[in-house]
Amino acid sequence: MTTFSITGLEEHEAALRAALFENAGIEGAAYVLFREAQMTNDPWDRRRHTKLLVREVIPIQSVSADGMHVTWDTVSYVALLQRAQREELILGIAHSHPKGPAEFSAQDDANEAELLRTACNRNGAAAKLVSLLFSGDGTVLARVWQYPQHQSTVRSVMFIGERIQFHRPDAAPASAAFARQILAFGPTLIHQLKNFRIGVIGAGGTGSATAPLLARAGVGQILIVDDDIVEITNLNRLHGATQMDADAMRPKAEVVAREVARMALGARVLPLRGWVSAPDVRDALKACDVIFCCTDDHAGRVFLNRLAYYYLIPVFDMGLAMAVAEPPVAGMADISARVTTVMPPEACLLCRGAVDVEVAREEDLRRQEPTEYERRKREAYVRGEGNPNPAVVTFTTEVACMAVNEFLNRIVGFRKRNMGFEIRRRFLFSEDRATTARPRHTCPVCGVRDAWGLGDTDPFLDIVG
Ligand SMILES: [Zn+2]
Ligand SMILES: [Zn+2]
User: Can you give the three-state secondary structure of the chain, one letter per residue?
Assistant: First the structure.
């Protein structure tokens, strides 16, 4: 058994709606081309998971629609099958039921079985056919056909952008624990959150606040990745951590997972001790719908930045700056927090100047070749770690709240003012600012469309090691 999920961009959703609901009350259709992301061991299902990433939507022009069902023109279909094989794409079809029902019809079953047969005859028995159904009531369903007649339901269909739309077929009643949140945002949000798979990268001050906030908001699956252990100097800000954890040198990821599990709100939490770019963390990361980047190192950010574009996984990146004024001036020179939503087609962290590529390289070297790193440090070729940064729990926690609210806003849209994709809070002046940036067209991550939703590549993320 394989789990399937679909992710596309807001622009793909808009193109689909335009094609599918072009003539009021009449069924419309489009082709959809996907790239694949394969996970051999999804950490939640413990089985294969294939994520289908939308690359292109092609409206179908010459389709005969009688208001009841659409028929497919074989010539254009076969031409696209040819292209799919050449470019390693998966071909899908999308159609609408403007007046319902919000389910596939017997006619759809017959049409799609025929289309699968054509696909297998042309491209071999391993060919798949993806089918998306948009209903007039807003329901979006999808399924995947495989040889000879096997259909798998797609677990979720997500479109990302200004808003995050998350469609998931089954609706179980929410726990009474969420009654007061439902008063604010209604029952749909809680149903969506229950089905989200969210990665929290870094279980320090911000991560240890972010994961419990997500669980209390109703998120059903949380992955926590960190390779550090609890130390005494973390206890001023690491939510849930105790002196005993520090004495026992417990991994931070496990401590934060323990605190989330203790809530018993139904969240499944998975701690992974390891470095974010390690090969054994890959499948778990790819399986996430959304990621919160709570690490303060640059190498981790550079890596997640790429992952966001290749796999269409929105990354909520947090940054906190605390700088003490130079004597004789007393007090703080700066306390500011930043939350950036990293995803196509917006500017990436590199183009926003939010990461220092030089520092990222030094961090990679320190981790991969510690002896060489020490040698270069002695000879002053690398800058070294320097003094630890100031850290105060109220600010690390506040940036976590900002990021989780940013995520919630993308789902429910509570904000009256559009803050774009980066918000900066300047604590010394009690103000929030929206900061904007454009992708540099030379940027290999956000500047060219090729990378967006490219999915699996060899080497992974096109990073030459
Ligand atoms: Zn239909
Ligand atoms: Zn960029």
Answer: CEEEEEEEEHHHHHHHHHHHCCCCCCCCEEEEEEEEEEECCCCCCCCEEEEEEEEEEEECCCCCECCCCECCCHHHHHHHHHHHHHCCCEEEEEEEECCCCCCCCHHHHHHHHHHHHHHHHHHCCCCEEEEEEEECCCCEEEEEEECCCEEEEEEEEEEECCCCEEECCCCCCCCHHHHHHHHHHCHHHHHHHHHCEEEEECCCHHHHHHHHHHHHHCCCEEEEEECCECCHHHCCCCCCCCHHHHHCCCEHHHHHHHHHHHCCCCCEEEEEECCCCCHHHHHHHHCCCEEEECCCCHHHHHHHHHHHHHCCCCEEEEEEEEEECCCCCCCEEEEEEEEEEECCCCCCCCCCCCCCHHHHHHHHHHHHCHHHHHHHHHCCCCCCCCCCCCCCHHHHHHHHHHHHHHHHHHHHCCCCCCCCCEEEEEHHHCEEEECCCCCCCCCCCCCCHHHCCCCCCCCHHHCCC
Residue 344 Cα, ligand 2 centroid: separation in angstroms? 10
Give me ligand 1 centre to Cα 72, in Å: 12
Q: What is the CATH number of domain 2-167?
A: 3.40.140.10
Distance 311 CA to ligand 1 centre (A): 29
| pTM of the complete model | 0.96
pLDDT (tens digit, 9 = 90+) per residue, 119-167?
999 999 999 999 999 999 999 999 999 988 889 999 999 999 999 999 9
Cα(56) to centroid(ligand 2), Å:
21
pLDDT digit string, tens, across residues 14-65: 999 999 998 888 889 999 999 999 999 999 989 999 999 999 999 987 555 5
Q: Provide the residue ranges of all domains of the chain, joining segments of one domain with +.
A: 2-167, 176-462
CATH architecture of 176-462: 3-Layer(aba) Sandwich (3.40)
Ligand 2 centroid from CA 205, angstroms: 27
- Helices 393-412 and 205-217: crossing angle in degrees, nearest 10, is 40
C-alpha 153/C-alpha 170 separation (Å) is 11
Distance 343 CA to ligand 2 centre (A): 10
Gap from CA of 14 to ligand 1 centroid (Å): 20
| CA 18 to centroid of ligand 1, rounded, Å | 17
Task: Pick left, alpha or beta for residue 39 (phi over 0 → left; psi -120 to 50 → alpha; otherwise beta).
Answer: beta
Cα of 30 vs centre of ligand 1, distance in Å, is 13
Count of Cβ atoms closer than 10 Å to residue 384 Cβ: 13
